[in-house]
Amino acid sequence: MKPLRLAVMLEQAIEVGGGFQQPLNDALWLHDWAKKSGNVVVVYSPYPRTIEALKEFGIEGRLLKFGVLDHGFLFLKYCRPFDLVQIALKAKSLFERALIKDGIDVVHFTSTSKRHLLLYQLPFTITVFDGCHRDTPEFPEVRAFGEFERREILFGLACTKAAIVIANAPELVDNLCRRYAMERDRAVCIPLSPSPYVAQSTKAGATDAAVLGKHGLEPGYLFYPAQFWPHKNHMTLLMALSLLREKGITERLVLCGSDRGGLEKIDAAIAAYGLSKQVSIIGFVDSSDLSALYRGAFALVMPSYFGPTNLPPLEAWAVGTPVIYPEAFKDQVGDAAILFDYDEPQSLADAILELRRDGTRERLCKAGYRRLEQFAAEIELGRERFTQQMQRLKHRLALTLC
């Protein structure tokens, strides 16, 4: 049987943060899987910067941009009657034609990509990180200007048409089956894993002081790496700091991430609460800085409304930094975090105080390492199931070419 040629699509820009780091993890392990199994993985991205980043890990990626015609094709695909025209004309997008020309057999999307709609001939597998447009539709980033409707089309088709759907938590698999009638045996659960930039640098080094100095920081701050979206809930964190200051407790906070339209309001809130001397906003940071920034933190504080899983807790655990996390997502963290109500600033303020109690930080660090070990075992099982499913898919595709 000839080797399977799997296209791995890295479509998230580096500036997306965790939304880039987890797909990068997927690309790295699939690259290793191909070597061991005798198959071939070709990694594609529309971003030259991503192609350069892949070289750091010994992968020669291929640049595959999406042109005007592909976007036009996508627009027509959102208009469902166009499917009939496509069938009649056997029309293929330029995107799919490029992959076929490269001899690709299967396309693997490392995110819930809209570009699976461009595939007419090639089968695909897809990754679903969350269903937050259903969980919290009140936020404009998943509701306004047709975004909710667009996601419903994408999720509905992806979950029913994909040969394999990768999700990172059992409850997410349950939701996809219930909401979109996804066949459960097509789902593979593979938990998130720390960014390779953090996982490969878990011990403090001489560069840590240089990284903190570059950003004007001293160790011992609260750390929240997140893009500035409303759902990231920076406001509750600022309110909690204000409540603590009223009690004479001053906590330093470091925020990093790309501005997605919410930074102006956050700046205004910092000024209104009088927190300018306590809060440092350092913007988007290089991936190579992440490990030092986590290590320099007294704790990761993550009040995000989106789940049920997130990447920063795993990265914090990897370097021995404790976690403060929403109670709504306790299934991810177990006993390895201090939990709080993400709608209650006082609850978050109390959680920060609890971390200062003797022995709490050490206990959480040990629990975090144990939690990472549990996830490592689950990741291994999930990847084994994925490779088994890929072997079945390879066999079936070989039959269609006989």
TrEMBL record:
What keywords sit in the KW lines? Glycosyltransferase, Transferase
- The source's domain of life comes to Bacteria
- Protein name stated in the entry: Mannosyltransferase
The keyword Glycosyltransferase appears for this protein = yes
Q: Does the keyword Nucleotide-binding apply?
A: no
- What are the GO MF terms of this UniProt record? glycosyltransferase activity
InterPro entries recorded: Glyco_trans_1 (IPR001296)
Name all Glycosyl transferase family domain ranges. 218-370
